């Protein structure tokens, strides 16, 4: 994965210095933290200071308690994560929407299908199935704005959720954007860090458009296949069989 920031901790304060910020990462994080802390102050770090015009820009926030989630989630952790996401999604987000209006995520699927066809047999079959996906109903569905939008965390790497034994808090909002519940669950469902979690049971707790959720999961599975194909050239990044496992997952999701 791309390294996007450096972190300095001083007492109870944490400062992020952004290595790259061409996608307004620093502005997105500062905006999302201020919105979230205003409405759900114990859910996210408290935004303390920002130097948004510096080179590199910085954002300073409070240091939250808890340990990063990892591996298979316990029942208590899974329930607490669901509560944290629900709290995030009920926060008014007009300020975020004004700066970065909703846009579809189809470009993430194109990263696979506009790239070279893989040499791996299973990955090539998944690539071909993904090419056919564009002729189906999912792209049209996902190109239409959702009926209701939310603050999208959009970086559901498990270590971005801190567990203190009772509740989950959320960090790292540099990818924050206007999203919807089904798409947020899709992004989370397909993140590699949640592969040992019962994601079907987790998603079943939420009242979302199941068709949109399925379409979103297919899209993000395509993104991850392209990513592991690219990173697969570096043996230290992914264990053996990662490409084949991701290709198999995509093929399963693309079945009617």
UniProtKB/TrEMBL annotation:
Residues 22-214 form the Aminoglycoside phosphotransferase domain. It comes from the Bacteria. This is Phosphotransferase.
């Amino acid at each position: 994965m791309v390294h996007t920031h450096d972190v300095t901790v001083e007492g109870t304060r944490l400062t992020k210095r952004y290595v790259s910020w061409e996608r307004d990462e620093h502005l997105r994080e500062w905006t999302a933290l201020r919105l979230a802390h205003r409405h759900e102050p114990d859910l996210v770090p408290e935004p303390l200071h920002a130097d948004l015009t510096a080179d590199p820009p910085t954002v300073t926030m409070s240091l939250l308690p808890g340990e990063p989630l990892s591996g298979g989630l316990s029942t208590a952790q899974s329930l607490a994560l669901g509560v944290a996401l629900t709290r995030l999604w009920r926060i008014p987000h007009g300020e975020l929407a004004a700066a970065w209006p909703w846009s579809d995520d189809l470009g993430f699927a194109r990263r696979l299908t506009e790239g070279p066809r893989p040499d791996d047999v299973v990955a090539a079959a998944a690539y071909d199935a993904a090419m056919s996906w564009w002729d189906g109903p999912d792209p049209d569905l996902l190109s239409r704005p959702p009926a209701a939008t939310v603050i999208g965390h959009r970086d559901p790497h498990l270590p971005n959720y801190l567990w203190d034994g009772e509740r989950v808090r959320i960090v790292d909002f540099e990818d924050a954007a206007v999203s919807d519940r089904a798409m947020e669950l899709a992004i989370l469902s397909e993140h590699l860090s949640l592969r040992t979690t019962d994601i079907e049971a987790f998603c079943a707790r939420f009242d979302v458009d199941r068709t949109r959720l399925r379409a979103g999961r297919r899209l993000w599975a395509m993104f991850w296949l392209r990513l592991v194909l690219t990173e697969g050239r570096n043996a230290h990044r992914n264990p053996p069989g990662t490409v084949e496992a991701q290709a198999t997952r995509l093929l399963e999701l693309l079945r009617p």
